[in-house]
């Protein structure tokens, strides 16, 4: 550990966007953000169909409005969560207390693992509803590419959120080491 990258050693320093953009957890968060846009955008734009014989729109996933609703809800909430944690990544170097940093990283672990689970459920749910959809409900194959894109990017999101959680665990271990080091050697400089 050089220069207290995770502790109070760099707290209060100037904001460096280049360093922020190069961090793996920031890159994964941006990728997760883009994936969530693809999922909810695909479903909102082309996930609802209407037939000439019916006056109401129906969900492309087996006419199940809950499937479209789940995909849109998870996508929008993941989008907002990514923005929140990107803001935390920007603010993180300014946090001087190791305990506050640990709380931020612990929340990142929990939230990222929770979102990986939600994306897994979403992938399974959308794929299942797509599999049992009847061809007669969509004879012109409208929106099929968007439906498949939502399923695919739900699958990819499982891995991006899981990797984000794994990186947060690594950050937590670094913070725990730094806290123990400062407890053992209170008068020496940060590791």
Automatic annotation (TrEMBL):
Pfam families cross-referenced by the UniProt entry: MARVEL
MARVEL domain: residues covered: 20-173
Protein keywords: Membrane, Transmembrane, Transmembrane helix
Stretches assigned to coiled coil: none
Protein localization: Membrane
Cross-referenced PROSITE patterns: MARVEL
Chain segments annotated as transmembrane: 30-49, 69-92, 104-128, 148-169
Bilayer topology term: Multi-pass membrane protein
PANTHER family named in the record: SYNAPTOGYRIN, SYNAPTOGYRIN-1
Recorded family membership: Belongs to the synaptogyrin family.
Record protein name field: Synaptogyrin-1 isoform X2
Organism of derivation: Balaenoptera acutorostrata
The organism's taxonomic lineage, starting at the top: Eukaryota, Metazoa, Chordata, Craniata, Vertebrata
């Amino acid at each position: 550990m050089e220069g207290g990258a995770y502790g109070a050693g760099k707290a209060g320093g100037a904001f460096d966007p280049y360093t922020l953009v190069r961090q793996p957890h920031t890159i994964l968060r941006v990728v997760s953000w883009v994936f969530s846009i693809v999922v909810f955008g695909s479903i909102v734009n082309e996930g609802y169909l209407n037939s000439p014989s019916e006056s109401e729109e129906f969900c492309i996933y087996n006419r199940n409005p809950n499937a479209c609703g789940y995909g849109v809800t998870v996508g929008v909430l993941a989008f907002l969560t990514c923005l929140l944690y990107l803001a935390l990544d920007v603010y993180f170097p300014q946090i001087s207390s190791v305990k506050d940093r640990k709380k931020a990283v612990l929340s990142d672990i929990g939230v990222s693992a929770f979102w990986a689970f939600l994306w897994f459920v979403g992938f399974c749910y959308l794929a299942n509803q797509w599999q049992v959809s009847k061809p007669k409900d969509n004879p012109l194959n409208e929106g099929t590419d968007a439906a498949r894109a939502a399923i695919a990017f739900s699958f990819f999101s499982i891995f991006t959120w899981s990797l984000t959680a794994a990186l947060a665990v690594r950050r937590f271990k670094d913070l725990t080491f730094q806290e123990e080091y400062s407890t053992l050697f209170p008068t020496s400089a940060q590791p």
